[in-house]
User: Which sequence fits this backbone?
Protein backbone atom coordinates (compact mmCIF):
# COMPACT_ATOMS: atom_id res chain seq x y z
CA UNK A 1 0.00 0.00 0.00
CA UNK A 2 1.44 3.38 -0.95
CA UNK A 3 0.92 6.43 1.20
CA UNK A 4 -1.81 7.85 -1.00
CA UNK A 5 -3.40 9.72 1.91
CA UNK A 6 -2.46 10.58 5.46
CA UNK A 7 -5.11 11.93 7.80
CA UNK A 8 -4.85 14.34 10.74
CA UNK A 9 -7.04 14.69 13.82
CA UNK A 10 -7.08 16.46 17.18
CA UNK A 11 -8.41 14.37 20.05
CA UNK A 12 -9.81 17.47 21.79
CA UNK A 13 -12.28 16.62 24.58
CA UNK A 14 -13.83 13.62 22.83
CA UNK A 15 -14.38 10.44 24.75
CA UNK A 16 -12.22 7.51 23.75
CA UNK A 17 -15.22 5.80 22.12
CA UNK A 18 -16.09 8.93 20.12
CA UNK A 19 -12.49 9.17 18.93
CA UNK A 20 -12.42 5.52 17.87
CA UNK A 21 -15.76 5.84 16.09
CA UNK A 22 -14.48 8.82 14.10
CA UNK A 23 -11.16 7.31 13.03
CA UNK A 24 -12.70 3.95 12.18
CA UNK A 25 -15.20 5.84 10.02
CA UNK A 26 -12.22 6.89 7.89
CA UNK A 27 -10.81 3.32 7.85
CA UNK A 28 -7.77 4.35 9.91
CA UNK A 29 -5.47 1.52 10.98
CA UNK A 30 -2.79 3.35 12.98
CA UNK A 31 -2.86 6.46 15.15
CA UNK A 32 0.45 8.32 14.90
CA UNK A 33 0.83 10.43 18.02
CA UNK A 34 2.67 13.71 17.35
CA UNK A 35 2.23 15.22 20.80
CA UNK A 36 5.38 16.36 22.56
CA UNK A 37 3.64 15.75 25.87
CA UNK A 38 1.56 12.58 25.34
CA UNK A 39 -0.71 13.00 28.35
CA UNK A 40 -3.53 15.23 29.49
CA UNK A 41 -4.82 16.16 32.93
CA UNK A 42 -8.22 17.12 31.51
CA UNK A 43 -8.51 14.20 29.06
CA UNK A 44 -6.66 11.30 30.71
CA UNK A 45 -8.11 8.83 28.22
CA UNK A 46 -5.35 10.08 25.89
CA UNK A 47 -2.46 9.49 28.31
CA UNK A 48 0.17 7.42 26.55
CA UNK A 49 0.43 4.88 29.38
CA UNK A 50 -3.13 3.64 28.64
CA UNK A 51 -4.02 5.08 25.22
CA UNK A 52 -1.88 2.73 23.11
CA UNK A 53 -3.22 -0.35 24.91
CA UNK A 54 -6.83 0.78 24.56
CA UNK A 55 -6.31 1.39 20.84
CA UNK A 56 -4.89 -2.13 20.47
CA UNK A 57 -7.96 -3.54 22.22
CA UNK A 58 -10.17 -2.06 19.48
CA UNK A 59 -7.90 -3.14 16.63
CA UNK A 60 -5.99 0.10 16.05
CA UNK A 61 -2.23 0.50 16.02
CA UNK A 62 -0.36 3.28 17.79
CA UNK A 63 2.99 4.89 17.02
CA UNK A 64 4.61 7.76 18.86
CA UNK A 65 6.85 9.92 16.66
CA UNK A 66 8.57 12.33 19.03
CA UNK A 67 10.48 13.98 16.17
CA UNK A 68 7.20 15.42 14.87
CA UNK A 69 6.08 16.78 18.23
CA UNK A 70 5.24 20.45 18.66
CA UNK A 71 6.22 22.95 21.37
CA UNK A 72 9.64 23.77 19.92
CA UNK A 73 12.02 26.43 21.18
CA UNK A 74 13.17 29.45 19.21
CA UNK A 75 15.83 28.44 16.73
CA UNK A 76 19.34 29.82 17.12
CA UNK A 77 20.35 28.70 13.64
CA UNK A 78 17.44 29.84 11.44
CA UNK A 79 17.16 33.55 10.66
CA UNK A 80 13.87 35.05 11.84
CA UNK A 81 12.86 36.22 8.36
CA UNK A 82 13.00 32.68 6.90
CA UNK A 83 9.65 31.89 8.51
CA UNK A 84 8.53 35.46 9.18
CA UNK A 85 5.03 34.73 7.88
CA UNK A 86 4.20 33.12 11.22
CA UNK A 87 3.21 35.84 13.70
CA UNK A 88 2.38 33.17 16.25
CA UNK A 89 5.73 32.31 17.86
CA UNK A 90 4.78 28.67 18.40
CA UNK A 91 4.13 28.15 14.67
CA UNK A 92 7.24 30.16 13.79
CA UNK A 93 9.37 27.96 16.07
CA UNK A 94 7.88 24.80 14.58
CA UNK A 95 8.45 26.00 10.99
CA UNK A 96 12.09 26.63 11.94
CA UNK A 97 12.31 23.18 13.55
CA UNK A 98 10.84 21.60 10.40
CA UNK A 99 14.07 22.56 8.63
CA UNK A 100 16.04 20.20 10.91
CA UNK A 101 17.36 16.69 10.31
CA UNK A 102 15.40 15.49 13.35
CA UNK A 103 12.10 16.60 11.79
CA UNK A 104 13.10 14.95 8.50
CA UNK A 105 13.73 11.65 10.32
CA UNK A 106 10.27 11.83 11.88
CA UNK A 107 8.67 12.64 8.54
CA UNK A 108 10.43 9.71 6.85
CA UNK A 109 9.25 7.40 9.63
CA UNK A 110 5.66 8.60 9.10
CA UNK A 111 5.94 8.09 5.34
CA UNK A 112 7.32 4.58 5.88
CA UNK A 113 4.44 3.70 8.21
CA UNK A 114 1.89 5.05 5.77
CA UNK A 115 3.11 2.70 3.05
CA UNK A 116 1.77 -0.26 5.02
CA UNK A 117 -1.22 1.11 6.90
CA UNK A 118 -3.71 3.96 6.75
CA UNK A 119 -2.44 6.50 9.28
CA UNK A 120 -3.84 9.49 11.09
CA UNK A 121 -1.49 11.92 12.82
CA UNK A 122 -2.97 12.99 16.14
CA UNK A 123 -2.40 15.90 18.47
CA UNK A 124 -4.61 17.44 21.15
CA UNK A 125 -5.85 20.59 19.36
CA UNK A 126 -9.31 20.07 17.86
CA UNK A 127 -8.78 22.05 14.67
CA UNK A 128 -5.83 21.66 12.34
CA UNK A 129 -5.34 25.36 11.67
CA UNK A 130 -4.49 25.93 15.36
CA UNK A 131 -2.05 23.03 15.51
CA UNK A 132 1.42 22.16 14.24
CA UNK A 133 -0.31 19.47 12.16
CA UNK A 134 -0.82 22.23 9.57
CA UNK A 135 2.95 22.49 9.03
CA UNK A 136 3.41 18.72 8.99
CA UNK A 137 0.63 18.63 6.38
CA UNK A 138 2.49 21.15 4.21
CA UNK A 139 5.59 18.94 4.26
CA UNK A 140 3.53 15.88 3.34
CA UNK A 141 1.92 17.79 0.48
CA UNK A 142 5.40 18.77 -0.69
CA UNK A 143 6.18 15.03 -0.90
CA UNK A 144 3.10 14.42 -3.02
CA UNK A 145 0.99 12.91 -0.25
CA UNK A 146 -2.71 13.76 -0.05
CA UNK A 147 -3.55 15.03 3.44
CA UNK A 148 -7.05 15.01 4.88
CA UNK A 149 -7.90 16.87 8.09
CA UNK A 150 -10.60 15.02 10.04
CA UNK A 151 -12.91 17.46 11.82
CA UNK A 152 -15.63 15.11 13.03
CA UNK A 153 -17.47 11.95 12.08
CA UNK A 154 -17.97 12.01 8.31
CA UNK A 155 -16.55 15.55 8.12
CA UNK A 156 -13.09 16.30 6.75
CA UNK A 157 -11.18 18.85 4.68
CA UNK A 158 -8.60 18.09 2.04
CA UNK A 159 -5.40 19.99 2.88
CA UNK A 160 -3.89 22.51 0.50
CA UNK A 161 -0.39 23.93 0.72
CA UNK A 162 -0.25 27.15 2.71
CA UNK A 163 -0.09 29.94 0.10
CA UNK A 164 2.73 31.59 2.08
CA UNK A 165 4.93 28.48 1.74
CA UNK A 166 7.89 28.73 -0.61
CA UNK A 167 9.43 25.47 -1.78
CA UNK A 168 13.19 25.34 -1.17
CA UNK A 169 14.30 21.91 -2.39
CA UNK A 170 12.82 19.41 0.04
CA UNK A 171 11.96 22.02 2.66
CA UNK A 172 9.59 24.94 3.02
CA UNK A 173 10.14 28.54 4.02
CA UNK A 174 7.32 30.83 5.08
CA UNK A 175 8.68 34.34 4.46
CA UNK A 176 6.77 37.35 5.71
CA UNK A 177 4.16 38.60 3.30
CA UNK A 178 5.18 42.04 2.10
CA UNK A 179 2.87 44.66 0.76
CA UNK A 180 4.01 47.44 -1.50
CA UNK A 181 2.87 50.85 -0.57
CA UNK A 182 3.68 54.44 -1.26
Assistant:
Amino acid sequence: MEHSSIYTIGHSTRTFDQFVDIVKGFAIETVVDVRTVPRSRTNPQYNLDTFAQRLAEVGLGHEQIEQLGGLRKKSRSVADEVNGFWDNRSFHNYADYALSDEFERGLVRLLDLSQHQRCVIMCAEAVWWRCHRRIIADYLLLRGVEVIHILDKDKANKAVLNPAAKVCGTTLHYPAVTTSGA
In short: The mean pLDDT is 94.
